Amino acid sequence: MSFGCTAGLKCFCITCVNKNYTCETDGICLASATLTGEIVQQWKTCVHRREMIPPGKPFVCANSKRVSRAFCCDTDFCNSIDIQLPLFKGNHLSKSGWGPMELAVVITAPVGFLCLALLVAVVYKRHALCAYVKARRHDDGDSVCSYITVRKTLKDLITETTTPSGSGLPLLVQRTIARTIVLHEIVGKGRYGEVWHGKWNGDDVAVKIFPSREERSWFRETEIYQTIMLRHENILGFIAADNKDDGMWTQLWLVSDYHENGSLFDYLNRYTVTVDGMMQFAISIVNGLAHLHMEIVGTQGKPAIAHRDLKSKNILVKKNGTCAIADFGLAVRHDSATDTIDISPNCRAGTKRYMAPEIIDDTIDKRHFGSFKCVDIYALGLVYWEIAHRCSAAGFHDDYHLPYYDLVPLDPSIEDMKKVVCDQKLRPTILNQWQSSQALQKMGKIMQECWCVNGAARLTALRIKKTLSKLSVQ
Predict the structure, then answer these.
(1) What is the H or E stretch that residue 120 is in?
(2) Could you give the CA distance from residue 196 to residue 189 in angstroms, rounded to a whole number?
(3) Where are the alpha helices (DSSP H) in 324-473?
(4) Is the CB of residue 42 less than 8 Å from the CB of residue 98?
(5) Which DSSP category does 301 fall into?
(6) Across-strand partners of 211?
């Protein structure tokens, strides 16, 4: 028997559940039955022309003896019949077979069970996540747990995905975060870029945007932030770094924690501080600087780092009244194993007003890392002077002033600073009114020891930290 192929031939199909158990072919319809053990399995499907070998009388239509039979036809739904096979039970002959409905139940039952298992797993996962959110946020979680997926905060991400070595979020996570931030407003602008207030999934973030010509500064700061074990409560929290191309130019993004109080410079311009507030500022700043300067030895250790551009504009004020050090574009790292200093290729030399004498007259010994830490201590003394000037002790406080405001122009040159700091060896004035407060009196002494002409004679960050901590307790 040979078959003529009909385009668009419709047949019954056991496995075509989503198509109402029908299929369409350019070949023939097939109905077959196979005896497996004591079970007769019915099969109905389409055989396409390309599968008909040989074309006239394909093998698939050939009948064997009693273990398998096939029926082929070429009219619509002609394979609706159930083929009967002899079924042997012991020495008795009987007939049995499964129809389309029975086969459908056999096929769909496991699928349904699998779907049910997946649904149970999803509900259990949702319950577990909601319990986690409630525990972390101490609320009823109704607004969050009304969804299957729970939104994670940046704090959650940093806690869960930061590597054990403390070197920051994985790069893929950084890029994902940076590309989904919505910028809201500019909160700062300088010679080397803009700082924006942005939002990521409802969380506030700060985005420092460098122009492409400042790629070295962006790369250096990103590199320092990703140093192992750098994360600290008094160092600005790094979140992500990425580059964005809008078709006309490339922007280099550095995403960090957002602090609505702004920089210490901005804060002191707006507000005075109490003695307790001054001590909290002073201790938190030196805590961050001591962590930077300290080398942590070990397989996952941290190199010693010097900031090299410490000033009130590069220190941020947090909500809790403490400070965080930021802007590491000029920072240098020390490799104690090789005794080498990783000096930034950046051509910036820091802020002239805060430069130590040895930087101004170019006498610093760049071969020794300790020289760079001494530069930071000098600048720290100037920052302390700014804070103390705004401290309202015994009913007195001064207006905000930059260091050397009465000795050099608003934008001083190297020559201006050299004349005052190196040649005349002048320093900011220690006010007589500070003698009436033990805290201000002690702060004045610390400043003077930070300003020594000889860098090696200056206090260390750790020594200042211990002195201020003891004073704070008193």
Answers:
(1) helix 100-137
(2) 9
(3) 357-360, 369-389, 414-417, 438-450, 461-473
(4) yes
(5) -
(6) 251
Strand partners, 315: 325
- DSSP secondary structure of 305-361: EE-S---GGGEEE-TTS-EEE---TT-EEEETTTTEEE---------GGG--HHHHT
| Domains observed in the chain | 9-98 (2.10.60.10), 105-145 (no CATH), 165-256 (3.30.200.20), 264-473 (1.10.510.10)
Nearest 5°: phi and psi at 359?
-80, -40
* Side chain identity, residue 46: C
pTM metric for this prediction? 0.66
CB 85 within 8 A of CB 65: no
Asked whether 291 and 234 are in contact (CB, 8 A), the reply is: yes
Closest CA to 375 of 400, 351, 356, 396: 356
Task: Kindly state the tokens that stand for 28.
Answer: 């023939």
pLDDT average per 10 residues of sequence, the chain (474 residues)? 75 86 90 80 87 78 69 88 67 48 71 84 72 51 40 60 56 73 87 86 90 86 87 91 78 91 96 94 97 88 93 96 93 90 68 95 91 97 96 82 96 95 95 89 96 95 95 84
**Is 309 marked active-site?**
yes
Residue with tokens 């349904």: 112
Question: Looking at this protein, which amino acid is placed at residue 185?
Answer: E
Query: Which is catalytic among the residues 309, 335, 361, 416?
Result: 309
CA 358 to chain centre: 39
